[in-house]
Design brief:
Layout (H helix, E strand, L loop, with lengths): L1 H10 L3 H9 L3 H14 L4 H24 L1
């Protein structure tokens, strides 16, 4: 069960864990709130989620390139 959980967390770009760390709450609670808000708002938070995932990916890419240069 732990391997499935870690696989899902890695494939989810780490957005919920990043937001949880920044806000000081558990990432599981952020995931739960995100699911509830997605149902209430008819999926519009998915746009926010994809934007943050893209931003985190670009940010980590820039950090990796600056370290190696």
């Amino acid at each position: 069960m732990d391997t499935i959980k870690s696989l899902l967390e890695r494939s989810a770009f780490g957005v919920c864990s990043y937001l949880g760390e920044k806000m000081g709450i558990a990432s599981a609670r952020v995931r739960l709130y995100f699911i509830y808000i997605s149902f209430v708002a008819l999926g519009s938070p998915l746009i926010f989620y994809l934007f943050v995932a893209f931003w985190l990916n670009v940010r980590s890419y820039i950090k990796r390139n600056l370290i190696w240069e």
